Fold this sequence. Notes:
The structure is a homodimer. Chain A is α+β, with helices and mostly antiparallel strands. In chain A, strands 3-2-4-9-6-7 form a six-stranded antiparallel beta sheet, with helices on one face. In chain A, strands 25-24-23-22-21-29 form a six-stranded parallel beta sheet. In chain A, helix 2 (about 340-355) packs parallel to helix 3, helix 4 (about 400-415) packs parallel to helix 5 and helix 11 packs parallel to helix 12. The N and C termini of chain A lie far apart (about 65 Å). Chains A and B meet through strand 18, helix 5, strand 25 and strand 26 of A and strand 18, helix 5, strand 25 and strand 26 of B.
Amino acid sequence: MREFFALSFTVGYSHALEEEPGEMVEATVPGAVQLDWARAHGYPPYYYAENWAQYRWMEDVYWHYRAPLPAPPAEGGQLLLCGKGIDYRYRIRVNDQVLYEYEGMYKPFSLDLTDALTGRDTLYIDIWPVPKRPGRPDDRSQASLCCKPPVSYGWDWHPRLIPSGIWEDIWLEKHGEPYIADAAFTYELDAACEEAQFICEAQIARPGETDGRQPLQMHMQIANSDGMLVYDTIGAAGEPRLAVGGRLVHPDLWWPNGSGPQPLYTVRLELLSDGQVVDVWERRCGFRKTELVVYEGGWEEPQQMPKSRSDPPTTLLVNGRRVFCKGSNWVPPDIFYGTLDENVYRRQLQLAKDAHFNMLRVWGGGIVNKEAFYDLCDELGILIWQEFPLACNNYENDKGYLAVLDRESRAIIRRLRQHPCLALWCGGNELFNAWSGMTEQSHALRLLDHNCFEEDRQTPFIMTSPLSGMAHGGYFFQEADGREIYEIIGSSRNTAYTEFGCPSISDLEILKLALPPDEIFPPSPDSSWTSHHGFGALAGRGWAVPETVAHYFGESPDIQTLIRRSQLLQAEGYKMAFEEARRQQPRCSMALNWCYNEPWPTAAGNSLISWTGRAKPAYEAVRQALRPTLASARPIRFLWNEGEDFEAELWLLNDAAQEVDAGEVTAYLDIGGVRTAALRWDAGTVPAGANLRGPTYRVRLPKAAAGGMELILTAARPGLESVYRFMYRPRQRIAQQPKAADMNY
Amino acid sequence: MREFFALSFTVGYSHALEEEPGEMVEATVPGAVQLDWARAHGYPPYYYAENWAQYRWMEDVYWHYRAPLPAPPAEGGQLLLCGKGIDYRYRIRVNDQVLYEYEGMYKPFSLDLTDALTGRDTLYIDIWPVPKRPGRPDDRSQASLCCKPPVSYGWDWHPRLIPSGIWEDIWLEKHGEPYIADAAFTYELDAACEEAQFICEAQIARPGETDGRQPLQMHMQIANSDGMLVYDTIGAAGEPRLAVGGRLVHPDLWWPNGSGPQPLYTVRLELLSDGQVVDVWERRCGFRKTELVVYEGGWEEPQQMPKSRSDPPTTLLVNGRRVFCKGSNWVPPDIFYGTLDENVYRRQLQLAKDAHFNMLRVWGGGIVNKEAFYDLCDELGILIWQEFPLACNNYENDKGYLAVLDRESRAIIRRLRQHPCLALWCGGNELFNAWSGMTEQSHALRLLDHNCFEEDRQTPFIMTSPLSGMAHGGYFFQEADGREIYEIIGSSRNTAYTEFGCPSISDLEILKLALPPDEIFPPSPDSSWTSHHGFGALAGRGWAVPETVAHYFGESPDIQTLIRRSQLLQAEGYKMAFEEARRQQPRCSMALNWCYNEPWPTAAGNSLISWTGRAKPAYEAVRQALRPTLASARPIRFLWNEGEDFEAELWLLNDAAQEVDAGEVTAYLDIGGVRTAALRWDAGTVPAGANLRGPTYRVRLPKAAAGGMELILTAARPGLESVYRFMYRPRQRIAQQPKAADMNY
């Protein structure tokens, strides 16, 4: 059997590839060189105030890792250096002998060190400065000829901090016997999802000489989620490659969260020599099929002559059944993505599942996540829309870049295609918009379609988001043109809302991580609010938008009040947008807000959870909005005045796979304790996976005190109730507007 | 040197693959089995009346070709059977030995017969019945799992007649010395189109044994269009493959018709053994680059939030310069495409060039043309939009079909990519519309993009027409909803009009080919007018539309009058639509009418030229509309009444690569000799490749006799003048409408 050895690294930097580093410090691997150096030299935390700027120089030097190597293996044995990825351009040496040189962070490697070992050996990993496209300013466009996440180069919610280093696992393996060098399990479900045709391919390697070989056998087993064997075969192991194919009838299908269970099978290969197990390969798999189809009724459009095409398909079928995709955009949960581990992923993904998400879009500006992320999504039933590392740039037809993208994308596909959660491949973010300038003719996107077709053609591929019919935005409760999110989403007819946002100021706990105490209130653009995206981000507007809060509520006397109001707008905005997208079924097939999480403590932003994994109030609002079945209202604006006719359509939303008897739904307004007359709607039964449009609740707004107003829906069936919050103003002269302190928000 | 031998075939049919045909008849090769059998058995012409139905049975039998083979070559020699394509599924035998079996009509073959020859040998080619997708009715959907042209299965301008047989050249080659088995010349132009990097790859074969070989040399020459050598190199010929790469600085660029000259270079390979030329390969090439980009201003759209993508690119750059694509849709000029030869192609393509066409869309419902077609387009400067053989069907993810499409598409790409005329690959016709139901997820289209990317990535690829922003239709002067083509095209804002049609009744000469004399007038659906598409075609309406002619002109007393009026509407409709599309630059980038030619004598249809190659009046109107520079009007409807304010915007259209001084443009109406007051517009100079929008000519229509009315534009610069025809009616009661005989149309 193989033996594993850990490596113990130190790291230092120099100004040239062949120059020795002046000082070596202890390295945490996986991790990032920046964090190692900062730890050793007492740098203040990068996420506080303007400290991030002190780390900036580290992107432009060469970094050098060193680790002592063990003694060479006994006669005939092999010592392999195995790694899942190093960030970004690097070479690997044993002493002075270069064994490997590569550009890219996703392709794993397995290097045979045996012949290079002398008995006193050192492993060197030399890393180039971060890649920058020549002639570009210090922004994301520098990443437009590489496969690093462009977000690291600076974004409107991410400072410029570009990690380098060994960001994935790396280890040594010693082999004395034949072993399974690589293996993959793939399958195809038939049209009815009743039978899986699978193939398990393995590559066999032997240390030492090739003469006098014992013939090998391969024992393959598949066990279902209860551990019961459903396939068991043994046969001669062809060398160096073998393939075992077979069929499973009526496999237990894997379903996304809310649509069914997530049974995971285990595939196990045992390599036998002389009847003894000499190596084992094992992995989990799930059986599911995903397809993108045109929405019901979509083929009838367009109707007018001259006639264009019908919209591209965005309706997802899982195992042949339509699934409305509810979820969010996933960004790296840390600037230094090398530090991510299962704990971070699990906390955030469990919250996603609890909020009834069934999909996350792994946005192309960030990283392709570590394996633990996808393992968890397999377990939790979170479908993954996976983008390649292209976003908001024109990745031009450069031969060198395309060669890197070819290798990196194949590595990504081969790794992720094995996960049942992997629902959809996408070339990258907003590539068909002006700020990117790419098209279907761009070679990078044709290459990605080409590679997905070769490596995983059963999974849908789209070139970018948005495509025609789909849309991104808006990103504010109230856009600069004055329109509220109620109107922006409510008046749209898109096939998928794959980004839409509503910002809030972060919780005070988070602000304290990010901002010096004296800068916290009032928010000012001349403070760390700006570097933490409260001001200046996204074409100058920033995410704090205190003027929007003031527009609705007047001045806020303190940070707690400002945060509460800001977060109320975010929660109400998101609630309306998610429910509205659900109402627009079947034309609309997806609602994924921008964004779910964040890479450091932002002062303000669109995320539902903060860097620490703490949920904002908007998280709870979204969780309510995404319940499988709920009574829902369709509010048209936030601010209402005495004497106006308040109105909102009443709906029953049902994504459940079974019909639901809601019974009577009641609606009324509560304005600071003053209740309006209730409307009673005998909604009755709403069919499986369908919505019911009910009456419009309409009432003239009575006189009451200025402040919060709530629309309350209850239903005979418990658990369907909903509350929508608004701002109410009594009739009076503007000069007599209530002071902030008088209001209950 | 190689020797060529012709083959002399007979053909017969049977009801099973292994069954002997009862009778053999003389075969014309290339051709079609239907024509051979009909000729031998005195069938009446398939294009007359309902005779086509008599040929119908031939699609369901096995056809068997036979040809005697010459004696085996002398010791060490090879006898090859070479063919460019056989239609459709076939096998090739020598005596009883099956040497080759293939499905598909486009992949060439080269079979070594040597070992199968005994001295008294017969070549057999057995052809399966035409493929039909099981469970489908007798229409184009039967072609949805094969690579035959679906049009043969019946279309609204093509009867159901499905050719079979040896449709391309086939011959024998005898080799006694080493020879060039295959070669290809490809190149890439740099961004500025100033340098071509080329590579010429060749495969060398040797008859006889491999011992005692003489080393070979390869002499490569490139001559420009004046015959002057621009590249000349000689070196050892690597076996069995060699590649010669090099650069040409400032090659003479190939331009489409109207944009510049079409210089064609000659690439010549000479294979030398002992200094003697033993084989030669030669072909023409032209240096050009084509790209599809977003139109000027297109990146500013869409503007609204939520924001979708910008439209897919349809603006063609040739050698970096924008070219507005003017032309038509090319369909097979004969039902029996095996009979096509350079003469047919030349006549029709010369007419296309004369009409200022610079592009033809080779529509996916028909064939990929024979080589002579593309050679002529290279010479004439006609850009080719080439579709793969998919149209108006859902070509599903069937593994067997995809394997055939993979082989056939690669053969098509490898042949056509060598032609400078080849501007654009397209997956097929109207595949993203309801009647096809395909999407970007369809494996057939992903496979085609994949193969084009591998074999010819420098040429743009689109999956289908129309894409978003582009449009097909309308297809009538007046649609069923009453809107005229003036309004339909005039109120649209599409990025490319890649199909739009206006039908007319065919010339009397053509009607006489198609219809029995007593059926010609009046046109009736209960006659061969129907099988010849005058009635019933295209969802029941048909192309004769006598009611439209009557709507404008009243009853027509005879066929000549009916034809003249019908053709006047077609001419005016096409003129307006082409000029309008030109006015819509730069958003609009293409105007390709449906359609250019026709496969048999139609009684009525949208084509500009008839089956015999005779031009309809619409051809001349289009030729006028596509002049590089012209004075143009923008009429809004056809029918005008006394006392109304006639109006039309005046424009100067200029596609020329240089500015044009038009001087003063004059506009007036002539109503049966009554002239209205003239408008004089000092248009002056119109820049290169730009249009000038002038004043609106507006005049109250005076009293005149009922009948034709002409808007006449003249310009100081000769050659720019234009005439637009309308119908005029004096004010009177409807009962007093003039009789048809009173009118000058």
